What we know:
With 647 residues, the chain is α/β, with parallel strands linked by helices. The chain contains 27 helices and 13 strands.
Amino acid sequence: MSTNRRQRRAEKAAKASPTGLAGGPGAARTLLAQAVRRHQAGDLAGAVADYERALQLNPKVPEALSNLGLALKDLGRPAEAVACYEKALALKPDAAEVLSNLGAALKDLGRLDAAVASFRRALSLKPDYPGALSNLGNVLKEQGHFDEAIECYRQALALRPDYPEALSNLGNALRERNLMDEAVGHFRRALALKPDFPEALSNCGNALKDQGLLDEAIECYEQAIRLRPRFAEAHSNLLMTLHYSERFVQRNTLDEARRFARLIEVASSARQVFSNSADPHRRLRIGYVSADLRSHPVGIFLDGILAAHDPAMVEIFCYSNARIEDDVTRRLRQSAGHWRIIAGVSDAAADAAIRRDAIDILVDLSGHTSGNRLPLFALKPAPVQATWLGYVDTTGLTAMDHILADRIVVPPGDEASFTEKVWRLPQTYFCFTPPAFNVPLVDRPAERPLTFGSFNNRAKLTPATIGLWAGVLNATPGSRLLVKTAFVDNPTIRQEMLGQFAVHGIGAERLTLEGPSSRADLLAAYNRIDIALDPFPYGGGLTTAEALWMGVPVVTLQGPRWVSRAAASILTTVGLPELVALDVEGYVRTAKALADDRRRLEAHHRELRQTVEKSPLCDGPRLTRAVEGFYRDMWAAWCAGRSAGRA
């Protein structure tokens, strides 16, 4: 909670408390006044102690119960906060503000339907309550009801136009609807009202990143961090965006990641005491943590691994930091022995839950990507912690013991770039599971112009990437390029991208820009292209695997760091290392050679799907046995360290 908001709440408490305790003992009045002062100063633990002592003397003061609930919620104890609000409401059922506070605490517990009901009850008592409207919008957005959320924020702003939090919340919902220009406009309005608003700065950075405005996004994140140095989400957003940006080669991401860790990690976390049995041979309890256990690259890559885990060797727990589910989620649920939802759950509460589950090895699948729970890993809830799949660099955390990679993305000699111990899988670190639905391969019409394509994330389409692709188009007269990515339906973004190609002499008539579609339609669209072009510096992972499975060869430029090596890992694994270029000239030359060899392209179209499916890329059991072997070795090392008094 911000200092200003805490001060407003404490001021309300100060006004309410004398009335509430007018007939009570003088000691209770003194304690409550002291609690208010501590609450206002940000001493939440001290405020809680004084509120509780005051309530022992006079338990029937709804204002004191409500204020205690506020302090407990801010301390990450939402269940106790709910109990306080319910006691306050038993004394004063028509307290709209308490109902709104109850809704916020219920949201933190993941009880979204109950939270919605509480906010609606508050609004039935006080329809002109902008705070409850904005909070209701937050829950509806988390449930995926974006249009309803947008309407709530607009109603809140109609009542209170100078409400920066509602403006920022509205910007987030508009971003979910791909209305980027409008989203950025609302973030900027929020910042005009409240310049020291780190959340709005970070949110604005996200929208700018989505539009490909990476330098502006980076500046927003850096401003947010200057305002709040321990703002974990802004640090992660900065680190992630640096990998898209051409600044990546100029900035040391290891130093940035270590800076994040110094600010976020709990000093005592490395010396936590664990009750896990130090038996190196017993069945292990493995926990996977991610916000992407769905139709997302992480969920798709994890699918074949969860299904192949040996239940005699490991017991699997999944901790999902998201509530929206799809068909991939349902498959993952079936493969996992235990499924926990930790979205909206505080780090302290999630830490306690993981400890109750007695997890031996906790695996992060996000790194610094959106929705990560790295501050939770900083608490060290499990004896052994590792990161894998979701990110392309070090987390920076000293509490993260290991990172899973392969010899191509992290070649020998690169270990110093990681705070974690590097474990290299024998083939690629990816596992691709073809979709459960049928996507037929369609013969290419002979009269169709040769078509290159990219279906990568918009943020990866940097000026360097566009220059690279323009070089390929200039080397292959008559060819075309199909780009299928988010936000190109936005006229501003579309014109900017066309303008970047025009600088290199590529006219709009050679370009087809399309927005996103369902996964089935996206895969079918590969039938319209002949060669996929990998972006640079941030190359493709899932897009590379999907293109190959659809019979489309991929040309990639291998860079010096993991971020530019994922496609090289996949291509080498399926037996196509000749499509990996080592410099710009080689990239253009490789793409042109493919374009000039129609017979070779036809063979790829006929044979690549079968080649991919028979390769280690699709061999889930093989990769899973290797991963389980690594887990066993990690665990044995911890057990040995504990026996020696080091763990």
